[in-house]
Design brief:
The chain is of the alpha+beta class. The protein has a single domain (22-158), classed as Roll (Nuclear Transport Factor 2, Chain: A). It has helices at 2-16, 40-58, 84-94; strands spanning 69-75, 112-116, 119-129, 137-149, 152-158. Strand 3 and strand 4 form a beta hairpin.
């Protein structure tokens, strides 16, 4: 009888618990502190990643991209072309980001910054629509990894998937 009660209790717990429970992914309180390193070489690369995150990805100052990206910049995101010109075109002409002039502090949420040799990976929280439950969201982690050469990003990876084409525009 005791085993039956335990079995029923566990069954009830399983049936009333969310099947896909997760903790939300959240950023740290002081994200800029993650971009400092006591190793001088790693610090240079982390600081360049900070500028990419703050000036380019947060404030959309893509006219300054040449300060932190090399001309051949190899892009592994399937939605943007390689090369400095290709990535600038993607952000300014394809997704048409709007530039923010005041950009003194990183406000994007950052989970972690990991540096190893020429590579810096930045982890950020992302929230998406849950395809299993319409109207619900789920939390996950996005990553950007750059390979640096002489203080500039020369190659980039992220977790992007191919974006669907925009819907057709109605004809007048």
């Amino acid at each position: 009888m005791k085993n039956l009660k335990i079995f029923l209790a566990l069954t009830l717990l399983f049936l009333t618990s969310p099947l896909f429970a997760q903790e939300p992914v959240v950023g740290v309180d002081n994200p800029e502190a993650l971009f400092a390193d006591p190793d001088p070489a790693l610090n240079v690369n982390k600081q360049a990643a900070l500028h990419i995150m703050r000036e380019l990805l947060q404030c959309n100052q893509w006219d300054r991209a040449g300060e932190w990206l090399t001309k051949p910049y190899i892009q592994h995101n399937p939605n943007a072309k390689s090369g400095l010109d290709g990535v600038v075109y993607f952000f300014t002409q394809v997704i048409k980001v709007k530039r923010t002039d005041e950009c003194s502090k990183l406000t994007l949420p950052i989970v972690a910054v990991i540096a190893d040799d020429a590579y810096v990976t930045v982890l950020t929280p992302r929230t998406y629509d849950d395809p299993r439950t319409p109207g619900q969201k789920y939390s996950t982690t996005w990553f950007d990894t750059w390979r640096f050469v002489d203080g500039k990003a020369d190659e980039h990876w992220d977790s992007a998937l191919i974006s669907p084409p925009p819907p057709p525009q109605p004809k007048n």
